Amino acid sequence: MEVVIVPDAEAGGELIASAIAGLLARKPDALLGVATGSTPLPIYQALAARVRANTLDASRARICQLDEYVGLPKGHPESYRSVVLREVVEPLGLTEASFIGPDGTAEDVAAASSDYDRALAAAGGVDLQLLGIGTDGHIGFNEPCSSLASRTRIKTLTQQTRVDNARFFDSLDEVPHHVITQGIGTILEARHLVLLATGEAKAEAVALSVEGPLSAMVPASALQLHPHATVVIDEAAASGLKLADYFRATYAAKPAWQFL
């Protein structure tokens, strides 16, 4: 996989936003898979700034979700649909009609999961999927020991993941126990995977994913199987890499766009 070490989160956001802008210039109706949480916010802010400056036309772009909580009522401010509408769709000047996501309120969650896989395929597949990484190496909500061939499905969150996400709720008790998540097999079908990780807390997970063996215990290591996966990390998140100097030298020798 391609590993790009940048000075900080803002630099990572600008680099990935440039890649997305290039994709939309080539394919204006590209399907962009987005992630939630605090890590990708610099990407969305950089894209929105380009839209405001009229240097990016995102009007035909399509957006799809990586995952969704199960059981939160429609319109709940912390449902991932609400978050994506608030942080991505509206700032880019898109409409809700451009948005594809799983139904976390469905009575039959298993059927809703399968329906979402079919919807992604019917849309032509994901052109670029943004990913974050958990401190335990999870991507989406594919927790450790998830099948590397898994499809979109319901998953039970680990206590650590619920604790990590509690900052978005008034209390830990309000964090749902279940989610619908794209499976690792579903994620790997995207044409380009871009993972952004920042901060020392992610250093061990990044090192295991990039330099460690392929392992279901570290779901993000599945990116090693993808023909076009890019990992963008800041210096803190790179602190556990044995090959950090090699990655820095490689990045310095090539224009940034060649990595993305």
UniProtKB/TrEMBL annotation:
It catalyses: alpha-D-glucosamine 6-phosphate + H2O = beta-D-fructose 6-phosphate + NH4(+). InterPro entries: Glc/Gal-6P_isomerase (IPR006148), Glucosamine6P_isomerase (IPR004547), Glucosamine6P_isomerase_CS (IPR018321), NagB/RpiA_transferase-like (IPR037171). The keyword Hydrolase applies. The active site is at 67 (proton acceptor), 136 (for ring-opening step), 138 (proton acceptor), 143 (for ring-opening step). Pathway: Amino-sugar metabolism; N-acetylneuraminate degradation; D-fructose 6-phosphate from N-acetylneuraminate: step 5/5. It holds the Pfam family Glucosamine_iso. Keywords: Allosteric enzyme, Carbohydrate metabolism, Hydrolase. Residues 10-225 form the Glucosamine/galactosamine-6-phosphate isomerase domain. The record marks 146, 153, 155-156 as: Part of the allosteric site. CDD domains: GlcN6P_deaminase (cd01399). Its EC number is 3.5.99.6. Allosterically activated by N-acetylglucosamine 6-phosphate (GlcNAc6P). Gene3D superfamilies: 3.40.50.1360. The keyword Transcription regulation does not apply. Belongs to the glucosamine/galactosamine-6-phosphate isomerase family. NagB subfamily. PANTHER family: GLUCOSAMINE-6-PHOSPHATE ISOMERASE. Catalyzes the reversible isomerization-deamination of glucosamine 6-phosphate (GlcN6P) to form fructose 6-phosphate (Fru6P) and ammonium ion. This is Glucosamine-6-phosphate deaminase. The lineage of its organism: Bacteria, Bacillati, Actinomycetota, Actinomycetes, Kitasatosporales.
